[in-house]
Amino acid sequence: MSEVEPEDASKRAHAATNNAGTSSTTSSPAVGHEGFVQPSSYLRPRGHSRPITPAQPLNPIDREQIEGLRAIRAFLKVRTSYDVLPLSFRLIVFDTTLLVKKSLNTLIHNGIVSAPLWDSRTSTFAGLLTTSDYINVIQYYWQNPDALNEIDQFRLNSLRDIEKAIGVTPIETVSIHPLKPLYEACRRMLESRARRIPLIDGDDETSRGMVVSVVTQYRILKFVAVNVSETQMLRKPLRDLNVGTYDHVETAYMDTPVIDVIHQLVKKNISNVPILNKDGVVLNVFEAVDVITLIKGGIYDDLNLTVGDALRKRSEASYIDLLFIPPYSCRLHKHYV
To answer: Are 117 and 97 in contact (CB under 8 A)?
Structure first.
């Protein structure tokens, strides 16, 4: 191929422009000094250029919000999940062959609402027992009342069969090594919508998993609030951050049957339901953990009682709070922290 002289290229570009027609409204691509068409000219809109909107400066509250969030993220990335644990703690692990009834009594006796599961046959971590598992058992026997007599022999390793029988999607059990950054643990909890995450370490001799502890959302938030002073910089109102649920909020009343509230918890995959009076004022909150108290002793078929009666089954101190202390609430214009 012979090289094209700049002068000849300029003549051909000029001739092509004349042959394009007499229309003066069509603009030709920009031509360089040597007569070559600039490729960038094809990317520009013809006719008029779009004005560039200058970036709006941040107000002091937005600037502090960003700085505070950056400080929290940096803190989470340099601290490990193990740092969240207290100096002394007690770990309760259930074998998957344990009876459901005994596991329930153990949770109530120790004042906890979840526990790691261990498969003794394979010596491996088998998941996490939570309130959702007991709610699934309640729904199963509510749908199959003839199987209620079998509940005393029901074991934890059959919980997955219960989920299949009632058509519930199994909850993904995520875990993390205790020396991994706390930021990564938060990301895994957020992606799986988990409220707690087990810490699983590896045994150097057997290379098998070993349960260290369980970290909850509450403990992480408390750890951040105590150790990161920049949380005071989070001053944007809840309304601007859109934190919380504002539309289609599930509610119930004091005379609502408990089983109906349980169906709400499962259907919406939520952990609590606000309890209102007839004027729409919040009186209390029925939580998923309240179910554990109701089925204490293995009573799964007495759930036609009202929410009011169920709340009275809480401890005496909690019931006094129910009568005299309203549930803690905050307004939309309050700060995030």
So the answer is: no
